[in-house]
Write a structure and sequence with these properties.
Layout (H helix, E strand, L loop, with lengths): L8 H12 L1 H6 L5 H22 L4 H17 L5 H13 L3 H13 L4 E2 L3 H22 L8 H18 L1 H6 L2 E2 L3 H4 L12 H27 L6 H23 L13 H14 L4 H4 L23
Parallel strand pairs: 1-2
Length: about 300
């Protein structure tokens, strides 16, 4: 797991996780040593692909970097140390390269003008950039029961919806309006950066509507916990509850994403973790497999890798 320059890939990945994924950094300690190490490397790999789009300095440079990453994934070789470790992880865990290519396609779509038409388009985007990561995480955690895959997709989608609601203003400043036109009207992205008072109410209602939608996906995601190895279940549950807590913070201020960035403090993380773990004693879905997936949650995802609807 050492790069050719002698740097340990796990150490670098852990630094990335600590700086950019604090909710996951908190929860990963509950996964067990091997799975925690793999999950940390997966996060760093996927975050690196996302950063190629967001931190390139120009859309042209970002597109070139993502196109290069796509070629690397297709050929199975790379001079980029993070992608190279990602390829190693893919081989170790049997991660299908189509999932990574979908993630890259989602990142590429962010380079164009983003003005989501409706919730179906938004959910397909959330699948690309986060549902795919849920499916990759199944392989990282040594899960191969296909009944688990829809739940993994849903937890990824739920977390991405939370991200979108939290970062409405910041994303808008980058020319991205993920809130669907069916909820708030076909506004320009810049209209969401610092909206006028009457428009702000409409946007807040849209944010609260998406948080409610996210609740459905969180419930479905957690319904699949029993498919995971026993030692990994607590870590994924805590990650889910802590991330859901971000949405609850946003909900508590009625969708106001402009005054401050919704976050969960260390004390809140400890409280949410304790409540989540204490609740597993009476939660059948944590212990017993067989929870049927609600297929309507994937009605707009037909044809995407890992999505199998009758």
């Amino acid at each position: 797991m050492n790069n050719r320059d002698g740097t340990n890939a796990l150490d670098l990945a852990d630094t990335v996780l600590e700086e950019k994924g604090r909710s996951f950094h908190w929860a990963r300690h509950l996964l067990g040593k091997r799975h925690a190490a793999r999950a940390t490397r997966l996060y760093a790999f996927c975050r690196h692909l996302d950063d190629l789009a967001d931190e390139a300095g120009s859309k042209e440079r970002a597109r070139a970097s993502l196109d290069a990453a796509r070629r690397d994934i297709t050929t199975g070789t790379s001079s980029d140390p993070v992608i190279r470790d990602g390829l190693t992880l893919m081989r170790e865990c049997g991660i299908d390269d189509t999932l990574v290519l979908e993630l890259i396609s989602g990142a590429l779509s962010d380079l164009d003008e983003v003005r989501m038409r409706d919730e179906a388009a938004l959910l397909r985007y959330c699948y690309q950039v986060a549902g795919t990561v849920g499916l990759m995480m199944c392989r990282v955690l040594d899960v191969d029961d296909p009944r688990s895959f829809p739940h993994a997709v849903d937890l990824g989608i739920a977390m991405q919806l939370t991200n979108i609601c939290r970062d409405v203003a910041a994303d808008a400043a980058m020319g991205r309006r993920y809130l669907p036109a069916t909820l708030i009207g076909d506004l320009q992205a810049m209209d969401l950066v610092d909206p006028v008072f009457d428009r702000r109410d409409t946007i807040r209602e849209g944010i609260l509507s998406l948080l409610t939608l996210a609740d459905d996906y969180y419930r479905s995601g957690e319904a699949g916990l029993s498919y995971l190895p026993l030692q990994a279940r607590a870590g994924i549950l805590v990650a889910s509850r802590v991330y859901h807590g971000i949405g609850e913070e946003l909900r508590s201020c009625e969708g106001d994403c402009w005054s401050r960035r919704a976050e969960v403090s260390s004390l809140q993380k400890a409280f949410l973790s304790t409540v989540a773990l204490a609740g597993t004693a009476h939660d059948k879905s944590f212990w017993i497999t067989g929870s049927a997936h609600k297929r309507d949650l994937h009605s707009c995802l037909t044809g995407l890798p890992g999505i199998n609807l009758p």
